Amino acid sequence: MAQRAQKLTPRLDIAILNAGVTRASFSTNPATGHEEDIQTNYLSSALLLLLLLDLFKQAASITNVPPANPGRIVLVSSDTAAWAKFAERDKDPLLPAFDDKTVRYEKFERYAVSKLLGQLFISELAKRVPPSLAIVNCANPGLCASGLQRELGLSVSLPTRLIGRSPVVGARALIHAAVVQDAMSHGQYVEDGKLRPMAPFVYSPAATLVIQRLWDETLQELSFAGSQRIIAGLN
Question: Which one from 111, 157, 189, 227 is the annotated catalytic residue?
């Protein structure tokens, strides 16, 4: 994706990071060894986000992008992040705790935690990314009848089809976050076209140390892609 974006002429302006999974049972990514929800919903999304920021930085130096037209990156989030128990919060290191097969796997909890990690990451990343370069936010499309629930069975997919939004309606919330929201949304959470609080844990006293641990471990995990260099070059 990042390589394709690099070839766009004159440049990439907007990216909505919409990749996501909800695994019904514990499974690991064969390439990384990490649990699939955490790998796809958090780590891979964080990687792509950093690579795109690097492209925005390169494009800005070449095309003289005016401050009034920064890039836009939306990380798709979920209100389920607010419901996460996040039992792993005190683990050190943190990320390997999600790969422990001996711990009982709860599919809804794991999805919620993966989205909470994204919010924690964005809250820290926004401190290092000037909104004149890129406005980065999280957005919730709401409960959508999409393929996300395909592994969870009829007990989940059928009610979702009955009461959930269509993917088209859900996409409107994401596009609004990418196109309409201004610099006030940088590092924030957008829901139904309005700025809303992130998950309560993000603002809790306990979050400070967890965010720093998650930040350090994430950059180390993604160091193969030059994550530290990218962050250092953003200011």
Answer: 111
Q: Is position 85 annotated as part of the catalytic site?
A: no
Set 45, 77, 78, 227: catalytic member:
77
Rounded-to-integer distance, Cα 217 and Cα 221, Å? 6
pLDDT at 208: 98
Whole-angstrom distance, CA of residue 14 vs CA of residue 134: 9
Q: Chain-wide mean pLDDT for the chain?
A: 93
Assess whether 115 carries a catalytic annotation.
yes
Alpha carbon 10 to chain centroid, angstroms? 26
* Cα distance between residue 18 and residue 21, in whole Å: 10
Using an 8 Å Cβ cutoff, are 95 and 158 in contact? Answer: no
pLDDT digits (tens, 9 = 90+) for 173-207: 999 999 999 999 999 999 999 999 999 999 999 99
146 is catalytic: no
Catalytic residue among 42, 45, 115, 157, which?
115
- pTM for the model stands at 0.94
